[in-house]
Each structure stands twice: as structure tokens, then as C-alpha cells.
From TrEMBL:
The name this protein goes by in its record: 28S rRNA (cytosine-C(5))-methyltransferase
Gene it is expressed from: NSUN5
Domain of life: Eukaryota
Compartments (UniProt record): Nucleus, Nucleolus
Coiled-coil region list: none
Keywords of the record: Acetylation, Methyltransferase, Nucleus, Phosphoprotein, RNA-binding, rRNA processing, S-adenosyl-L-methionine, Transferase
Amino acid sequence: RGSGFGPGRGCWPGPAPRLSLCPLGRAQNVKQLYALVCETQRYSAVLDAVIASAGLLRAEKKLRPHLAKVLVYELLLGRGFRGGAGRWKPLLNRHQARLKAELARLKVHRGVSRNEDLLEVGCRPGLASQVPRFVRVNTLKTCSDNVIDYFKRQGFSYQGRASSLEDLRALKGKCFLLDPLLSELLVFPAQTDLHDHPLYLAGHLILQDKASCLPALLLDPPPGSHVIDACAAPGNKTSHLAALLKNQGKIFAFDLDAKRLASMATLLARTGVSCCQLAEEDFLAVSPSDQRYRQVQYILLDPSCSGSGMVTRQLEEPGAGAPSKERLQALAGFQQRALCHALTFPSLQRLVYSTCSLCQEENEDVVRDALQQSAGTFRLAPVLPSWPHRGLSTFPGAEHCLRASPETTLTGGFFIAVLERAEVPSSVSQAETSAPEHIPSAAPKRKKRRCKAAAAPSAPPRT
Ligand SMILES: C[S@@+](CC[C@H](N)C(=O)[O-])C[C@H]1O[C@@H](n2cnc3c(N)ncnc32)[C@H](O)[C@@H]1O
């Protein structure tokens, strides 16, 4: 979610990433293959028309129609065959001029100039495709200044700290910015693909949507704390929590899905996380009275959800319907049980509940019911007063929740609620326990100084 590319995760606005297509099954990156297939599917009608009018299948009897479509997508609409395509390259080269001419003719015929305008209206990605590529700097391994210098040396142009969403919207080409709110977040144009970038492969960068960076930041556990990440895989938020903890303290991370936990373990190793204990466990079965969790004051709950706010979904299935009533009910039931369960951990002070769903049933309704059941023990913390998109006013205080969307915040669709314990033990002063309403690492007056963390790698390490 809001993290790298792939089925149901993150986004790939613009052309799908370049692949070695020889043969397709040997593509090194399944996620990239998935992106390529989705984009090919989106342009299916256009590709059919071009292939037919260029007579490709008549001329190349051994070329199967589906493969032809993927190859022609890559040639005309994707990244071309720079270094890829293997044995198909000569075949495509023979037809290249004709295919290009047919695409141009189709555009003239339809009176459009951009490839995207050839799509049926329902297949156009709209605002979702304009969500920039957000890149979180992993402060366990490096710092923003080092990363900025690295990109500058690679020919990118650094435009400084953005002052508004308009600055982000205007990004083009090889320009990048620092996010106006989050100081460890770099912003590149939507089409930027950094999956092969050495800093990403070395774990110095995490490709994570801005909205998905907010839960850990708003939980804000100080170094040394004990934290539960209740539904943790594939682990982008866990790695963010570890960075905020500076690897000091403990994260107990749970997930039910063994495969996702395995990729999470790889991610945590790559990003230098050393304070996390992973467990393949149902969070609902984790006992709040277990002595191991007695010091847990912070919980991040980012449960399975319909994903209706995910940019990928909006790009893959523009105009796709909302999740069915039954599915929503089942998801909301689990989300509510998980939230109520989390609120029973005895030392809990602060909890962040987040989803990448736009549905009220999975968001405001879940939070309202959990608050009612907690009978005043927990309340919503008023966070980020300047954030423009707030929770739906379905109950008093719901405006303390945050929403996000491509239209309002130039991010994926997201929901966040921060709950804090209302009763303050008499021995602890209010000043010590009250929740910060700012984003800690977003202090605008940051002095330019070199970071102590390891310098950015000079050669691309491969994993
Ligand atoms: C939205 S994803 C979490 C994304 C993760 N927080 C991140 O930022 O990378 C939800 C996760 O909850 C897990 N999950 C679902 N039910 C669970 C349960 N009862 N206990 C623990 N994890 C569960 C799913 O396997 C899935 O990996």
C-alpha cells in the first residue's frame, strides 16, 4: 500500500517500466511485468487497431496475438526496447516504421495528439496518474542532504523545498523537490521510475506515497519506545517506525501472511532495521496481558481494507465500482475488532489507525464505534490542523481524522485517525504526555549540515 509497485500496491503512473521480454516468463521483476500487462491491457483496443492496420500478424505467422500486443505496447507506448526484447527485437525492428506510422495515422484520424487521448474516457487514469513519485529517505542509512547531492550528481535538478501542492503539480522532467510538509520526503514527477535506482536497491530510499508516510510520523514514538505494528507486512511503515526510533527500542510486528512476511524480512534487512521482531501471528490472538507487551505505549494499526483509495486500482480499473456491501461489512467487522483489541493494551498511550480505503464504513464508522466502546478512555487527537482534507463529519470530532486523495492532497486515497489515551496518570505531567500536533521531522528551519549516516553508495549494489 502506497509503497512500491505491484498488484494492489503503490502506483505506476505513465508508461509501464521497461522489461526484458525474452521470454516474458523470465522477466526479472514480477511487479514490473504486472505493470506492463496492465498498461497493455488498458491500451488493448488501440494496440489491436495498430497491429491490424500494420498487418503485423499476417506478416509474422508465428507471433501470437497476445505477445504481439505486449511487444507493440513496449515499442510504441512504453520505453522502447533499450537493451531488452531479445530475439523479438529484430522482428519488431522490421515492422517498427510501419507500426509507428499506423499509430500516427490513428491519432490524426481521431484528432488527438497524445497517446493517452486515444483511450476511451473510462480508461483514462485522470488525476490518479498525476500523483507524484514520493520517495522517503531512510534515515537509518543516509539523510536527505546526501540523497539530494546524489541525484544532483546524476543530472537531476533540485528545486528546493516546495511551498505548495502547486509546486508538486508543476514538476516535470528531471526536476525534484523536498515535500512542503515532510522533510525526509523527496518528490519527483509522476512518471519517474526509481525501482532500479542504486539508492533504492541499497535501502537508502523507500518508494512510499506521502499519505502512507503519515501514520508512523503521527504515531511519533520516541527512540527507546516499545511499539506494536499490528498488521505489518510488507513493512514500509515498520521501516519508517524503526527510522523514527533510530533503531532504539522495540517493534513487535505481526502479520498473518507468511509470504508477505518473507518479503518484509527482506525489506527490513535491506533498510537496516534491527529493532523489529517479526511474528506470523493473528493480531487478534495477541494477548494484551502478555508480559512481553507490558511496555507497549504505541500501536500502529493498518489493517487489510478494500483498497478503494489506491492509485493503482484507479489506474488499472478506472471507474471500477465500489466494494460490495458484503465485502465492506466483513472488512469493517475485522477492522473494528482489531481496533477495539488494540485499545485494550494496558500501557497504550497513542494509536494510529489507517486504511487506504475511501469508504466511510472502514474509516469514520470503525473509529466512532471503537471510541464508543472505549467509553471515554481514548479520544481523537487533533493532528495536522493545516491538512486540507478532514474526516467526514459523521460524529462529533470526526474532523480530527485525516483523509487524502489525488484531488485534494495529490496522494493516494487514505484515511488516518490518531487516538490517544484520555486519562493521564496523576504521576505524569500533561506536558510529558500530550501528543504533538506537528510532524516532528518537518521542522522548516532545518540547518544545512552533513548527516552522520552512511554516505550514499557510489556503485549500484544489486540485490
Ligand atoms: C494494508 S496491509 C499492511 C501494510 C503495511 N502496514 C505496510 O505499510 O507495509 C494489511 C496487512 O494485514 C495483514 N492481516 C490481515 N489480517 C490480519 C490479522 N488478523 N493479524 C495480523 N495481520 C493481519 C495482511 O496480511 C496484510 O499484510
